[in-house]
Amino acid sequence: MTGKRVRPVLLVTLLGAALAVLCLLSLALGAANVPPDQVLRALAGDAPSRFVDNVVWSARVPRTALALTAGAALGLSGALMQALTRNPLADPGVLGVSAGAAFAIVLAVGVLGINSLYGYVWFAFAGALVATVVVYLLGGLGRSGMTPVKLALAGVAVTSLLWSFTQAIVLTDVDALDRYRFWSAGSLADTDDGTVWRVLPFLAVGAVLALACAPALNSLALGDDVAASLGRRLGLVRLQGVAAITLLTGAAVAVIGPVVFIGLVVPHVARVLAQAAGIGPDQRWLLPLSAVLAPILLIAADILGRLVARPTEIQAGVLVAFIGGPFFIAMVRRRNLAEV
């Protein structure tokens, strides 16, 4: 029993250490490398030069903080969506939620002339919610009802439609195009120190709602009838889950763009690690693990994007898609998934 308790603690410790190391590397590496000891001195308020202080505090601390918060939001929303639908293909990007939020932002900027983050973040929430409802309605059509593959196909169709509408707006509006090109590929660049603080309340509320769903999600995994017999109010649980997904995805997309596949890949990795640690499919562990693993992936992709194309950079969303695309294809081709 002692060994079983130690393994989850060890897993969390190792993931926390990996995240801390990546955060340090994110502050140190880029177009201009800063030695780690100088980064630590700058964080302590004793920067060796004004240049180091500006690089660390003005450019890289906001960028790293944004990767931490937005990455955790996307990972948590993906894990929540997969658990809520019992669908291993569920992901805010694959199921059109990110595309809905992105289209709503472009609509706000290009048509209504809203350029402030606090202005268009509400449109991101609305777009995410509408896209979620439409995909679920389409995925549930037909005699067989909702299946993982049908839901994924509905998500792809809605995503394609929304991207076509988005392109139609940005091609005819210079302001919308200027805003769109920075975050369409999932960009963490050009972040100021106020960006995280502006969306943090939305992300915090979404995270609390998501984590509060964990016990009910364990019951839902046994089936709706069993969950209802255990006293779970299924409608309330699903409403709470949709609210959490909308807040987390809408806020994350508003600040970093429609980064896809994080919510798909990370929960599967979390389940593998949880199984190895003897935790099992307990959502009380899987949701927090996904919230830690997602920023690890996003920060690693961001660092790699800065290094492989210096002095320019490749957007983090491009590298995440490069990893997630093959993973998505492998998931669809799995025999046991095709039989669901």
Your description of this structure?
This protein has 340 residues and is mainly α. The protein has a single domain, classed as ABC transporter involved in vitamin B12 uptake, BtuC. The protein is built from 15 helices and no strands. The chain has helices at residues 2-28, 36-43, 50-85, 97-110, 117-139, 148-170, 174-183, 195-212, 214-220, 224-229, 234-256, 262-276, 283-308, 316-333, 335-338. α5 packs antiparallel against α6 (148-170). The longest helix is centred in the first third of the chain and has 36 residues, at 50-85. The radius of gyration is 20 Å and the shape is globular. The chain crosses the membrane at residues 64-81, 93-114, 120-139, 151-171, 199-221, 242-265, 285-304, 316-333. Keywords: Cell membrane, Membrane, Transmembrane, Transmembrane helix, Transport. Belongs to the binding-protein-dependent transport system permease family. FecCD subfamily.
Short overview:
The protein has 340 residues and is mostly helical.
Integer-rounded radius of gyration:
20 Å
> What characteristic shape results from the CA principal axes?
globular
Low-confidence stretches are: 335-340
So what's the oligomer here? single chain
- What gap, in angstroms, lies between the N and C termini? 35 Å
Tally the helices: what do you get?
15
If you average the pLDDT, what whole number results? 84
Question: How many strand elements?
Answer: 0
CATH fold title? ABC transporter involved in vitamin B12 uptake, BtuC
Biggest β-sheet strands, sense, barrel: none
Query: What string gives the helices and strands in order?
Result: HHHHHHHHHHHHHHH
Going by CATH, the homologous superfamily would be ABC transporter involved in vitamin B12 uptake, BtuC
